[in-house]
Amino acid sequence: MTNLLPTSDDTIGPYFPPCFAARERLDLRTPFPGMNVAPAGTPIRIQVQMLDTFGKLAGGCSLIDVWQANAAGVLRRPHNATDAAVDSYFEGFGRVISRDGTFEIDTVKPGAVKNGQSARAPHFTLTFFCDGFNRLVSQFFFDDEPLNAGDPLLLSLPSELRDRLLARRVDDVDGVATYLLQVRFRGENETPFFDDLLS
User: Fold this and answer.
1) Cα 48 to Cα 68, 102, 119, 185, distances in angstroms
2) pTM score, whole prediction
3) CA of residue 140 relative to chain centroid, distance
4) Which of 66, 142, 138 has the alpha carbon at shortest distance from 97?
5) Residue 177's CB: how many other CB atoms inside 10 A?
6) Alpha-carbon span 8 to 155, nearest angstrom
7) pLDDT digit string, tens, across residues 155-171
8) What is the pLDDT of residue 174?
9) Cβ distance 113 to 68 under 8 Å?
């Protein structure tokens, strides 16, 4: 019989199977490895920094999901699989495990999502799973997007909170617009989070 060493008494985690963080799942512009196809739309890169109470990078281990509409403003869902506006080469979903408090999303600029007779500003949803909390969800917008002025989610917040949901354009690298998003989990200038968001 083999004696096994006791495991750590840390029961909080998070512990994620390696398959949850396949590297290609954070490059939303490459739908199928090895195939020369790409989704429609303008390529962008989003650099994300996760910050703690003191404004420092929140290290450790976090699992992050990203979900967004395609360039036409259509979210891929089971009920619209045959919709002509669904981009066959764009799933709109990605996942990564971050150990140093940073990660990058290579994607296309989402279009305005139709909401009845109106349209929501281009945005993306991030869901965070980290040690210390179960799940945090928020939506983020682009600071150079005119439709922000009429987005119902942004308008539902006091003006001083809206600014915390903006990814700021910082650079263009090889023709790709790059945005920086800082997400503060708690403390001063904490990012607004929501119970749940479908789009």
Assistant:
1) 15, 6, 26, 13
2) 0.84
3) 8
4) 66
5) 17
6) 46
7) 999 999 999 999 999 98
8) 84
9) no
